[in-house]
Amino acid sequence: MNNSPAIEVLNLHRSFGGNKAVQGVSFEVKQGEIFSLLGPNGAGKTTTISMLSCLLRPDEGDARVMGHSIRSDQMGVKSALGVVPQEIALYEDLTARENLNFWGKMYGLRGSALKIRVDEVLEIIGLSDRARERVGKYSGGMKRRVNIGVALLHKPKVIYMDEPTVGIDPQSRRNILDSVIALKNQGMTVLYTTHYMEESQEISDHIAIMDHGKVIASGTHEELVKLIGGQARIELTLNTNAENVIAEWKTVEGVDSVTAEEEKISALVNDSNLVLPRLFESATRHSARITSVEIREPNLESVFLHLTGRALRD
Amino acid sequence: MIRILDITLKDLTQLMRDAKTFMFLLIMPILFTLLFGYASGAFSSNKSDSRLPVGYLNEDNRWVAQSLHDILADSETIRLVEYSSATTSDLEALVTDGKLAAAIIVPRGYGQAMLKNKTAHLIVIADTGSTAWITIQAETLTAVSRLDGALRTATIADDMLGDRAPFRYAFDQTLAAWQDPPIKVVETTSSVVPKVTGSGMSLAHTSPGMMLQFSIAGLLTAAQVIVVERKSRTLQRLLTTSVRRIHILLGHYLAIFTLIFSQFMILIAFGQLALKVEYMRAPGATLLVAFSAALCISAMGLLIGIIAKSEEQAVILSIVPMFLFSGLGGAWVPLEVTGETFQLIGHLTPVAWAMDGFKNVIVRGFGLDSVLIPAAALMAYAILFFTLAAWRLNVSEER
To answer: Which of B2, B233, B243 sits opposite A85 (nearest CB)?
Structure first.
């Protein structure tokens, strides 16, 4: 493995009509790492992945995947890639084996090499014993596994996974996250998009946080947390509408930012031990009772809140 | 290039698993061909008698009256319905009710009067204002003239030749001579244009008509495969592999073409073997029309698959052209029986060209040369539809 990046993204722009979906996105993914694009829905993650898959042509900028330009060498890019789309992009009236056989052929596999690889992938995704069933009869989790299996058929150097855990049960989600880590251990580079902070935090070597079509922060989990100076997040629930209290809490010493949603208040603080009593005092002055308190150590959610003033799931 | 065939085989596997494919492509056209065939009398027995029913009451017992009966009974235009004991008013009622086109009463003494060269009257009951009457009148006058002519000839022969030509002998010979007259009109048909019977004509129109109509209806399943591929984003996934767009399009096109062309071959074989429609009169010409029609309809299916946003839309976009093209293109009613303007409008549809091609072979008995223009028109439509589909795919799956 050499040191050249698996993916280099240089100032990508893409608009749909007047909507600027991606505005000057740049990042670099090293070979063999899991790189997450984290952001809320509509942040521009899928548009970025679509450009990197040569499905969309960028208005400006370029990107290189294993050295192949998405502008001038699309076939080179595609041959280096495996893409796991957000949707279950399979033929439901074909069996799992028929699907894998078909997609293997689309990736250029033939004959015994195809048969051997299909058997291997069925083993990897744990569906060898149900390979003759039509995909349409599978559960959501099983479909997701076949969806991922298709992208592994030609042993690509780079895999894009676009929100692969949306809408599935916790057990299938766990299996998918484990399989992503396994892919990394096999030397593959994974570009992973998600709006689940926990997933990104758990599996990623490097994270780029996206919002409104821009990368607003990038680094390892530790580097990102440092951006907010190690601030903790305190989440409180009041017995009355939070709007009355929030104005005062913003001025409390040690509070960096405050967001509120009905009775629930979320505050980024430098030292929760010092700040918490002040918040109780303030609440008492406004005749409000704090009914629950939760202190969270600094995480990506806090980073996003710090950078955008909004929660990641807003 | 081999990926084109991979996509084709995948599509065909999907289509073969859909029962609708067989229903629209094979079962429905066969059923409707038979249905329309029955409706137009293609399967009715040729033994049925379409002659005008004419009541016949013979009150004269002379052999001359019997001879008149025999002449009328041999008629190709009237059918005698004989009554032995009816009254004039009974026969009038039957004519009034429309159960008889007319009634002829041979009165007592009719034969005797004829033999004595006296005025002899037949009683005929008929609606003299009807067209049937003209036919019956002409046929009756012909019969009476032959009878009269035979009696006069026999009388002359008897007078002149005596025992060498007895009266009855001369009379019978004269009547028999009418069976093989010295001057007659013989209808012949050129061997280049074999005669198609009435029932054959009906099936010769219905068979290709229903075949074309349901080949378009069958597009709804083929188009749905493409729609589902787009909706499920499987097409987008295909575009992330190194398969080229044109190969994806050609793969789908080849699948639909294979389906439609196979349908044509099966239905042509069915038409030829079971319905005796003369597709194989010029096999090369039939094959060329089927090939070009399949190219055209497949391209239309591809376009529908690319345009439709949902499976429901694919159904609508298949059914509407099916009715429009079949109706205007002469799949239901021959364009030959319509006006010039309708024929002109009809030929804006590919179905009209395909019908022209097939009917040039199976009805008009022409060969390969006669289908070159229809085939060219169908291929031009195929190019148009395919180009539109390719353009639309590029726009909808914009890079």
So the answer is: B233
Q: Which domain holds residue B114?
A: 52-177
The verdict on a CB contact (< 8 Å) between B399 and A88 is no
A231-297: CATH superfamily? YebC, transcriptional regulation domain (3.30.70.980)
Whether B145 and B217 share a structural domain: no
Identity of the residue in A88, A89, A105 whose CB atom sits nearest the CB atom of B236? A89
B256 & B343 share domain: yes
Closest listed residue to residue B36, CA positions, set B186, B202, B284: B202
CATH of the domain at B126: 3.40.190
Q: How far apart are CA A75 and CA B241, in angstroms?
A: 8
The answer to whether A79 faces chain B, any CB pair under 8 Å, is yes
H/E run at residue A106: helix A96-106
* Residue B191 within any structural domain of the chain: no
Residues of chain A with C-beta less than 8 angstroms from the C-beta of B230: none
Q: What is the pLDDT along chain A (314 residues), one digit of tens a residue?
A: 567 899 999 999 999 988 899 999 999 999 999 999 998 888 999 999 999 999 999 999 999 999 999 999 999 999 999 999 988 999 999 999 999 999 999 999 999 999 999 999 999 888 999 999 999 999 888 999 999 999 999 999 999 999 888 878 888 888 889 989 999 998 999 999 988 888 888 999 999 999 999 999 999 988 888 887 777 888 888 887 667 788 888 888 888 888 887 778 888 888 888 888 988 888 888 888 888 998 887 778 878 877 887 776 55
**B122, B39: one domain:** no
Contact A89 B243 (CB under 8 A): no
- Cβ A220 vs Cβ A44: under 8 Å: no
Q: In this prediction, does ipTM exceed 0.90?
A: no
**Superfamily classification of domain A7-225:** P-loop containing nucleotide triphosphate hydrolases (3.40.50.300)
Determine which helix (DSSP H) or strand (DSSP E) holds B295, and give its type and residue range: helix B283-307
Question: Within this chain, do residues B302 and B357 fall inside the same structural domain, yes or no?
Answer: yes
| Cβ neighbourhood burial of B345 (10 Å; 0-12, 13-18, 19+) | middle
